[in-house]
Amino acid sequence: MTSIRRVLVANRGEIALRVIRACHEEGLDAVAVYSEPDRLASHVRQADAAVLLGPAPAAESYLDIGKLIAAARESGCQAVHPGYGFLSERAPFAEACANAGLIFVGPPAAAIRAMGDKTEARRRMQAAGVPVVAGTAAPLRDPVDARREAKRIGYPVLLKAAAGGGGKGMRLVRGETDVEEAFQAARREALKAFGDGSIYIEKYLERPRHIEIQVLADRHGRVVALGERECSIQRRHQKLIEEAPSVAVSPALRRRLSEAATAAAGAVGYISAGTIEFLLTPTGEFFFLEMNARIQVEHPVTELVYGVDLVREQLRIAAGQPMRVHVGGTPLHPRGHAIECRITAEDPFNDFLPATGVLQYLRVPSGPGIRWDAGVEAGDEVTLFYDPLLAKLIAWGETRDIAIQRMRRALGELIMVGLPTSQPFHVRVMDDPEFLRGELDITYLERAGARVLSAPPQPGLERALAVAAALEADEQRERTSGGDGRDGRDGQVGRGGPSPWVIEARRDGLRGELE
Ligand code: MV4
Which terminus of the chain is less hemmed in, N or C, by CB atoms within 10 Å? Predict the structure, then answer.
């Protein structure tokens, strides 16, 4: 990689580490950036250099374009990798990089803009022959316009924010009497969230699956599709479990989805790794939803079944080299099955309330077919400043059933003490009959949430696991600290505090018995 020697990793957590690792495999230096509370974070310690951005709030650190450009310059970087979230899909950031002579490891700003405006994206996709849901080609003027268009399309309809994505400013309208109020509400919400109140209409599809196609495009004119990911297990537009391939996608359907996805990427001059989201109806029709102009959280499931390193390919493409996959035009096929569980600092038994605390003890799962992509280590403090994603547990198996078996086994190995996580939710989903049958659509969690999160199905096992975790954590701290209740890493935030054994006992309501 001649033009790039040093890469600024403009992110934190697991994706920063993921990018650092890809840099190191390519023989590149990785420069981390960090906010004050992240000064001892693993992405900082695994990088070759690190630049302090500012205080904890993202607006003053990870979202500050000026500070990031200055950090890249003063640390001698030639390229900037934005990861996901933060500045990854902000066209002004891609432009600021270019203006500073830095290579943005991602798509051109124009492609980000084209896909960011949802009505423009719809028009471009339609022109490229990509199926779009029946709807309006441009934003609606007023509620009268909305009522006329809704009548033409037929109820139920969805009002969506043109500047949006991710579900903000979205309103379901089942009949004519609800249009006016929904239109005003959607407009207010969109204005507040995006500074743009433009609203358009789509026919509402009932119980579709969320299927997305991974694409890679290089500067040598090659655009390839790397199959689908099934992402229907979501909660309030946050994905919790993803898998590849989808049980609902036959080789013939995969071919049609892939053709649509590569046409979509081509239509906006896309370069780098990107994802085309589709809704797949129970009758097997599919429609373009939106494009994600970034590497995504769930990229590892595609990596495992296609045998590619998407982040390494991003770096090669950014350096102007041809991508390494699909050489000779041989079609790509998925091999085996991969599932990802997002381990978040959220309490599944308390409506997924974001949790804070110190990760006092961590036992990492490993062994055959298991990948652990984490941004945290034992001793780290989890705050509300950033996304609750702590780690991704990914299992590969020759078949879906074997991947699920492995995921179950690995979830049993995983021990996290100190704060609630989504782990028990995943444990239960891996035994849920509907999940096991692959009966998924975007309403899965609404239907399954109560079922899988009702009274713990295996109270004995859960309790045993909690006690084992606490004992192991106590033992660990004896070994590393000489039993003084500290771990010898002086001055690090969040270390020390009460024994995890005591904390576990409190959680179980055993206060009197142990203190
Ligand atoms: C839809 C839809 C049904 N019909 N569009 C949700 C967020 C944004 N990306 C688009 N979304 C949806 N658009 C039509 N015409 C249902 C959703 C939707 C959804 C989509 C994917 C994954 C989860 C979802 C949960 C609720 C609604």
Answer: C
Alpha-carbon distance of 391 to 394, in angstroms, equals 10
Of 294, 371, 400, 495, the catalytic one is: 294
CA dist 289 and 229 (Å) reads: 14
What is residue 328's predicted lDDT score, i.e. its pLDDT? 65
Token pair recorded at residue 312:
């390494």
Residue 489 has pLDDT above 60, yes or no: no
Quickly state the pLDDT bin for 503 (edges 50, 70, 90).
low
Distance 61 CA to ligand 1 centre (A): 32
The per-residue pLDDT for 186 is: 95
212 CA to centre of ligand 1 in angstroms: 13
Question: What is the Å distance from ligand 1's center to 308 Cα?
Answer: 29
Asked if 294 is an active-site residue, the reply is yes
Q: For the segment 463-481, what is each residue's pLDDT rounded down to a tens digit?
A: 666 777 777 777 777 776 6
State which of 125, 278, 279, 297 you would mutate to test the pocket of ligand 1, scoring each by most atoms of that ligand within 8 A of its C-beta: 279
Pocket test for ligand 1, best of 159, 160, 237 (most atoms within 8 A of CB): 237
Confidence label for 488 from pLDDT (cuts 50, 70 and 90):
very low
Closest ligand 1 atom, residue 231 Cα: 22
Report the pLDDT averaged over residues 169-178. Answer: 94
Sign for the CA dihedral angle at 85, 86, 87, 89 comes to positive
User: Read out DSSP for 65-112?
Assistant: HHHHHHHHHHTT-SEEE--SSTTTT-HHHHHHHHHTT-EESS--HHHH
